[in-house]
Structure formats: C-alpha cells, structure tokens
Amino acid sequence: MGICYFWVLLVCILTEGLTKGVFGLAFNWGTRSTHLLTPQIVVRLMKDNGINKVKLFEAEPEPLKALGNSGIQVMLGIPNDFLASLASSVQFAEKWVAQNVSSYISQNGVDIRYVAVGNEPFLKSYKDAFIHTTFPALQNVQAALIKAGLGRQVKVTVPINADVYETDSNLPSGGNFRPEIRDLIIPIIKFLSNNGAPLTINIYPFLSLQADPDFPKDYAFFSGNSKPIVDGSITYTNVLDANFDTLVSALEKNGFSSMPVIVGEVGWPTDGDPNANMVNARRFNQGLIDRILRGQGTPKRPTPPEIYIFALLDEDAKSIQPGNFERHWGVFNFDGTVKYPLNLGSGRGLVPAKGVKYLERQWCIMSPQASISDPNLAESISYACTYADCTSLGYGSSCGMLDARSNASYAFNMYYQTMDQRRGACQFSNLSAITTVDPSPRSYTGQNNTCRFEIMIDLGHHEKASSPSMAAPLVKHFLILQLLSTWVL
Predict the structure, then answer these.
(1) DSSP state letters, 248-290
(2) pTM of structure
(3) Measured distance CA(48)–CA(71) in Å, rounded
(4) What is the bridge-based pairing of β-strands 165-167 and 229-231?
(5) Which domains, ranges and CATH numbers included, belong to the chain?
(6) Residue 344 CB partners (closer than 8 Å, separation 6+)
(7) For residue 483, what pLDDT is reported?
(8) pLDDT value, residue 443
(9) Which SS3 state, helix, strand or coil, does residue 28 take?
(10) Which residues are the active-site residues?
(11) pLDDT tops 80 at residue 472
C-alpha cells in the first residue's frame, strides 16, 4: 500500500512540475529599451509563463536582484567590451566575479549557472576585434570562479555565431570550423571541455531566410513541408537541425564528439522586414516550443540541448545595424503584453505581465488642419525618428502600408511617447495635435496587420528622464526616402 501511494505521489509531483513549468522554457532577457518594465514585473512574467531559465547579456544590478530566490536559473553574459580588461588582468577578473557573481549568489540567492564570456566575439563583422582577447579572458574568468569557490557550481561558456563553421559539401556531415579561425576556436573548446563546461551556439533560421532570396522558406520552419536534405542515412527537414549538426560534425572531426552544446539564441522577429511578422514568428516559435516540450533533439544529438529563445521582450533602443527587425524579437511586446498566442503545453497559453502602469491614453498625431505638402513636414519626421523607434514604418513592416498622413502621425506619436508625453513633445512646426482617440489603423489588413500607435509605460519619473541616446540615423534616412516616395506616388 505504501509503495502504491509512493508511485501515485511521484506521478502527482511530476504532473504538477510539468504544469507549473519546472521543466520549462529558457529565454533571453535584453534591456535595450527606452521604457523598461520593472525587473520585478519581468521576473513575475517569466514565472507565470513557466520560464525557469534566463540569459542576461550583462550584469545589471536590478535584474539580478529581482532574480534572487526566484527559482530561475541564470546565464550571465559579459559584453565584448570587457574582454580586453579581463584578458589583461586576472585581478580584474577576480574583482568582476566577486562583484557580479559571488555577491549575487551569496547575498541575493541568485541561481547563476553559467557565465557567458563575450557574445559572438568571432563574428566576421567584428573584423578580428576580439580574437586575441576572448581565450585569455575566458581563462581568467574560470580562474576567478575557482578562486571564489564556484568552479563546480558556475560554468563558463562562450556564445559563438554559426559563421565560425562551414561545410564544403553543403551537408551537415561536411561540417568543420573555418580554416582561418580553427586555431583560435579549438583551444577554447578544449579548455571548456577540460573544465566540464559547454559551448554555446546562436542559430538564426530567420537570418538564413532573410539573407538569401532563394532559401526555401519552409526549410526555416518545423512543418516538414520542405524538400528534405539527405545526408547519408540522415534526412534533414529543417535548417535548425542541419545547422546544429554541422557544428556537431565539426566537433567530431576535431576530437570533441561528446562536447555539450547549448543553443544560446534562436527565435523569430515580428516586424521590421517582410519575413518578420506575427504569422511567421508564431509558426516558428510554436514549432520550437513543441520540440522542447517533446524533448526532441537533432539527428546527431537525440538528447535535446538547452535552448534559450530569443527573445522575451522587444527592445526599441537596440542597434539596427543588422536590420530594422532587431528591435522586434520579443515573444512579448515591450510592455509585457502578448503578441500572439502560443501553446506552452498542458493547456497553458502565454500570460501577460501584471501590474504595468501606462502614461495617459493620449496620442500625438498630424493635425487634421496640416498639409502633407508643408515644407517642414519631412524635417519634423526626421527629427522624431532620430530620437524614437520608427522601424515599424519600413517596407514590409507592420505600419509600412500607412498613408502619408498616418506615417507622419506614427512618427510624431513615437517621439511623444518616448519623451514620456512631456509638455512640448507634441509640437512639430504647428503640424501636430494631441488626441484621445486611438489612431491605430482599424481597416488595414494583411499578414502584418498589427500596426499599433503605442502608449508607453509610465516610468514614474518623467521630469528626471534624459534625452534618449538611441539615435537611429539609418532608420531616419530610410524613412524620409520612403515617405517622400509615398507622397510622389
């Protein structure tokens, strides 16, 4: 009888664990935003949605404190700008670990499991800026963790981009590290292996589709509708499996067949590019979550890796150098509202953030009395989009089909909201006016029918807010050209 009760109890515990997300999801939490949710609200959002692992890109005090005693495991990132200092001085590494790892574990109860040294430091676009500092920085951080008594509890890793490996045969089995980087990456992998630490890889099927007009679209998703790629006895039906196994082949060829690998970033944006929309993002992320819930790995690694979905929230102050989509990776909007439904298993869907406070329900729009032929209009839009995020107005984006007047209204409102609705923030050469009627389009239909005229989070200290430093000249010049062409047409 006691044995039967034990098994019933065990089943109940496991079932409850699945329901509450004990075996839950992992997300990236970025903070490049003009209007951040409080860390306490974000942590509650994660817990409400069964997210039990999070990757931070840097050691920011408030998010780390909020994660204390939360039950959420943390991968703590070190920005590339720190690599030179960490590489040059083990004392600097010891100080960094003491301030950003040891103290938060001991004083705040933060469950830090990994320290990610750098972020894609070998990316081709960095032009070798970090190739000589990454490995010594990694060694010094590892030494500092050991000295702090955390060598077993906290593991180091290096998040790399998929461009560090390639395949001459266009098949995963042909995978190997790029010849010009092999002598750099192999010692790092060996060091990680010797210390029982994983390698972290960032994989972006969206970027594969976005960069190549001939890329088979279905191959970016998990539906199995794409023409498969046959590699010997293995059949690949999606690019994530193929990309991951290309890395596995590279590891095998270099003597690291059992090297643990974490997927540090993978996801799909919802705006800023014709392929970035709610339909595609939901399709990709639901397929990804279904795999995670099934415990599905890849053909060469049937045991599933840890996967950190990118990203939790939108970030309107991120660099758009890679593309306008960079600010729209979140499964949630910047304010924690749900973008699109996802099935998280056991009948659970996404839950929005609780306790969010907003500015007044008012918007800045182009005045009904103003003319689109006004000579000051282009300059006013340019100014607004220099200090606010106008990436949703780009070609193929959620607000890309607005008419000229609505385009101007969107730009004016984004500036007004970014400036916390401060007095004088809706004055554009007598071209603007404040309205209490939501100007978000109602009749626009299409795949990206999600154009929103935002109201920002109330930060509670408007008078202390400084001018944003998120100037976006690339968006500005692109937008002016687009608007002018719209008016001409």
Answers:
(1) HHHHHHTT-TT--EEEEEE---SSSBTTBSHHHHHHHHHHHHH
(2) 0.90
(3) 12
(4) unpaired
(5) 18-327 (3.20.20.80), 363-488 (no CATH)
(6) 21, 25, 49, 50, 289, 293, 350
(7) 44
(8) 55
(9) strand
(10) 120, 265
(11) no
